Backbone:
């Protein structure tokens, strides 16, 4: 028994030592707010966002304009302001920035201002566009790509607002960034990072990018409690450790790093909006469920989304963002 007590004492000491060094603030109330993210609300939003009315959300086209209005109205209804100016949620991107005849478009932005370090920002991003209407007239609804990421951000924003309303404003600011033009060349995130960063890039702590988190790929059909993570260890050891700790503490999903391999032939690290932040030495995590047979097809519809999984994955992103926003010190870029 004495030997067991000694071992337990050592274990507890090591735990608190590691906890002190990593400066984590994980607590029960973060899970309370995470639980405001619900499968029913995700489903309701996605059935509208990925409906035929939005005509596949092709950049610059009428359906994409409906999509940005949908997002704007959600933020207004939640009482979450824009960082640009009151009531102006659109970061306008002129036609001259695009190529191949792509029409002018816009990113959608909203934010929660930090209480102690408002000039430091955590970005949560997803692309709002999809590939539009096929030559045969079929609408590509893009429910998973990236309707799932888009509605996840709305629910994550709602969770942060619930915390604010209860007097728990995050220490750092959190920017909810819906970028346009991803499918045509990562235009929206490139415009944000190269032309008009609303928050200076040197003050940007991390980007958590969500692109397809509502489905299961063939590899995981028999064990669907997973998510692919890409980029978490590329620039910051600390970010990777925080991500792992949050998951193990609350969710225990399988974090699959298959596509994080430098030799991955798919090169997914370079193919979504987080990359434009990583290019600027900003730590990133790309959350991804992998591809499936409906990828970039009219059959990517909201009835095929697994909403319980979407809920859990969105909660994971929220808790990770919460931790990053509330640490005493910003994470360090050490790679």
Residues:
């Amino acid at each position: 028994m004495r030997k067991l007590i000694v071992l337990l004492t050592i274990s507890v000491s090591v735990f608190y030592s590691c906890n002190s060094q990593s400066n984590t603030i994980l607590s029960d109330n973060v899970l309370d707010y995470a639980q405001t993210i619900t499968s029913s609300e995700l489903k309701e939003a996605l059935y509208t966002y990925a409906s035929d009315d939005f005509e596949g959300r092709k950049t610059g086209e009428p359906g994409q304009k409906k999509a940005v209005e949908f997002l704007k109205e959600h933020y207004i209804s939640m009482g979450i302001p824009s960082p640009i100016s009151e009531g102006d949620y659109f970061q306008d991107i002129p036609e001259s920035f695009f190529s191949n005849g792509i029409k002018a478009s816009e990113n959608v932005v909203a934010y929660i201002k930090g209480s102690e370090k408002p000039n430091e920002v955590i970005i949560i991003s997803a692309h709002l566009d999809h590939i539009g209407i096929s030559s045969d007239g079929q609408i590509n609804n893009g429910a998973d790509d990236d309707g799932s990421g888009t509605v996840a951000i709305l629910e994550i924003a709602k969770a942060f607002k619930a915390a604010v309303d209860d007097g728990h404003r995050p220490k750092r600011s959190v920017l909810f960034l819906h970028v346009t033009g991803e499918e045509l060349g990562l235009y929206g995130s490139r415009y944000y990072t190269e032309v008009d960063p609303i928050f200076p890039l040197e003050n940007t702590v991390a980007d958590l990018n969500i692109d397809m988190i509502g489905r299961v790929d063939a590899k995981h059909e028999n064990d669907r409690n997973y998510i692919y993570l890409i980029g978490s260890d590329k620039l910051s050891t600390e970010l990777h450790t925080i991500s792992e700790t949050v998951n193990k503490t609350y969710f225990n999903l399988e974090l699959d790093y298959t596509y994080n391999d430098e030799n991955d032939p798919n090169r997914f690290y370079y193919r979504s909006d987080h990359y434009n932040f990583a290019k600027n030495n900003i730590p990133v995590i790309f959350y991804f469920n992998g591809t499936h047979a409906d990828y970039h097809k009219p059959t990517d519809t909201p009835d095929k989304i697994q909403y319980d999984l979407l809920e859990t994955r969105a909660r994971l992103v929220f808790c990770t963002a919460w931790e990053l926003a509330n640490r005493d010190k910003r994470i360090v870029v050490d790679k």
User: Anything to note?
Assistant: The CA atoms of residues 92 and 164 lie 28 Å apart. The longest helix spans residues 143-165.
